[in-house]
């Protein structure tokens, strides 16, 4: 049902005009009759509102959202139903989105980008304290308002992604992702339970775009972007923009926010905020940001050469399994260069003494073999290796529950980080339980490299 100007919802909200439409519903500017107040009225799509259990969850979550009172959040005025219409009325904000700013200006200066992120973290801290997780932080959902003391950030659609969980659960069962792939955390990609640290990952992605002009992984098909967030190392700020200079403390804070494992990120929004405040306390030098009108970068400069990581000491040996001895030998050589004890193994060889098993997948049969091995309790964590551009292979590994995916040829830092993490879990005997949607093997905790 389309609402038209002049139509009244629930006897008290008169539609003025449509402002925008998303997957959950349509946002209208409306006048609250009697009070003469302009509001943003979000009306849920009928197919969303009719999902079993959604109405009850909507009312519960809207009550929680109404308790979120922060200058950086959008105040909820009212919510309810009008026959088949389900609506929520919120404060009407003015200004422009960070997405529009990026399109116009290209990148932001370090103080400006970090200052805006600090404001977002203050809102996240208040929301997380109420158990509200945004789940869809991105530049389009961050609005800038003019204020006598400077720019103020408003976080839009706060909690509405959480409200949609019951609806999205049904959708994701047939393979559709929740949220915006370019800014989603690995655990959210997998359909697992998320907490406030998922929002910190998204904010790290936002900061990456504010500072470099591009998100961590370039825009492309959803499956490719999703697989990159799950398995590929996140490019550092310097790798993405070697022509710019970034404080080391800022680089560390952004990369830590985008760690694949939630436990490796800051413990909460307050901790990340303190890290960024420490950046603001330091003098900033470096090249200025893109000039106004330059626009967002469409390509990535060639990354700087980075020295390989140091050797790993005291770890269990690594096994390499491949149908081709030449490919296996090259991977063994790469592992040895990174300091691992590694050797080629046969298909029937016992694997109990190894700390990790790397399987070179050169087809569907070898991928299936890797997934079978990952399900066995006598096999160490299994990492599948293959071409990064083979997205069918990447997603097959993703869905099969293997520990991780290593693109070939391997990046030394990525190889060291992922294999070391697998060995550590093997030594501790702390391989986690299967993740939701991981398939019967379900061994992996998700991707482990940055």
Automatic annotation (TrEMBL):
Residues annotated as binding ATP: 42
Keywords on record: ATP-binding, Kinase, Nucleotide-binding, Serine/threonine-protein kinase, Transferase
SMART domains: S_TKc
GO MF, one annotated term: ATP binding
Domain Protein kinase: residue ranges: 13-277
Keyword ATP-binding in annotation: yes
Biased composition (Basic residues): 418-427
Residue spans of biased composition, Gly residues class: 439-450
UniProt cross-references to SUPFAM superfamilies, sorted A to Z: CheY-like, Protein kinase-like (PK-like)
Region (Disordered): 283-313, 411-450
Gene3D superfamilies assigned: Phosphorylase Kinase, domain 1 (3.30.200.20), Transferase(Phosphotransferase) domain 1 (1.10.510.10)
InterPro entries per UniProt: CheY-like_superfamily, Kinase-like_dom_sf, Prot_kinase_dom, Protein_kinase_ATP_BS, Ser/Thr_kinase_AS
Regions crossing the membrane: none
Keyword ATP-binding: yes
One Pfam family this sequence matches: Pkinase
UniProt-listed PANTHER family: MITOGEN-ACTIVATED PROTEIN KINASE KINASE KINASE 20-RELATED (PTHR43289), SERINE_THREONINE-PROTEIN KINASE NEKL-3 (PTHR43289:SF6)
Protein known as: Serine/threonine protein kinase
Source organism of the structure: Cystobacter fuscus (strain ATCC 25194 / DSM 2262 / NBRC 100088 / M29)
């Amino acid at each position: 049902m389309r609402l038209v100007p002049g139509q009244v919802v629930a006897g008290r909200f008169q539609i003025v005009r449509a402002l925008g439409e998303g997957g959950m519903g349509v946002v209208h500017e409306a006048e609250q009759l009697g009070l003469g107040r302009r509001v943003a009225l979000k009306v849920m799509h009928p197919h969303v509102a009719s999902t079993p259990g959604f109405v009850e969850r909507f009312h519960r979550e809207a009550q929680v959202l109404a308790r979120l009172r922060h200058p950086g959040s959008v105040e909820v005025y009212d919510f309810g139903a009008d026959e088949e219409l389900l609506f929520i009325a919120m404060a009407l904000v003015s200004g422009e989105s960070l997405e529009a700013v990026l399109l116009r200006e290209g990148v932001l200066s370090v103080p400006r980008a970090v200052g805006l992120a600090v404001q977002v973290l203050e809102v996240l801290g208040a929301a997380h304290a109420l158990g509200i997780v945004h789940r869809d932080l991105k530049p389009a959902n961050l609005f800038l308002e003019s204020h006598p003391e400077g720019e103020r950030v408003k976080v839009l659609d706060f909690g509405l992604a959480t409200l949609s969980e019951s609806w999205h659960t049904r959708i994701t069962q047939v393979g559709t992702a929740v949220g915006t792939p370019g800014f989603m955390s690995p655990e959210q990609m997998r359909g697992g339970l998320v907490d406030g640290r998922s929002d910190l990952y998204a904010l790290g992605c936002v900061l990456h775009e504010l500072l470099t002009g591009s998100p961590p992984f370039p825009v492309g098909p959803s499956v490719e972007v999703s697989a990159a967030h799950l398995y590929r190392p996140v490019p550092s700020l310097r790798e993405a923009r070697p022509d710019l200079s970034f404080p080391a403390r800022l680089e560390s804070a952004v990369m830590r926010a985008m760690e694949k494992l939630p436990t490796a990120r800051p413990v909460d929004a307050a901790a990340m905020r303190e890290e960024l405040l420490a950046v603001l306390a330091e003098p900033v030098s470096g090249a200025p940001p893109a000039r106004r009108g330059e626009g967002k970068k469409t390509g990535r400069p060639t990354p700087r050469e980075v020295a390989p990581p140091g050797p790993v000491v005291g770890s269990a040996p690594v096994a390499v399994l491949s149908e081709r001895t030449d490919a296996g030998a090259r991977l063994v050589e790469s592992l040895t260069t990174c300091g691992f004890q590694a050797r080629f193994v046969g298909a029937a060889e016992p694997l109990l003494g190894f700390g990790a098993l790397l399987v070179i997948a050169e087809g569907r049969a070898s991928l299936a073999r890797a997934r079978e091995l990952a399900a066995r309790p006598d096999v160490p964590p299994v990492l599948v290796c293959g071409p990064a551009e083979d997205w069918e292979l990447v997603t097959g590994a993703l869905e099969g529950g293997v520990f991780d995916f290593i693109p070939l040829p391997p990046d030394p830092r990525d190889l060291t980080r992922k294999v070391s993490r697998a060995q550590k879990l093997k030594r501790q005997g702390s391989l986690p339980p299967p993740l939701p949607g991981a398939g019967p093997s379900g061994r992996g905790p998700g991707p482990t490299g940055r």
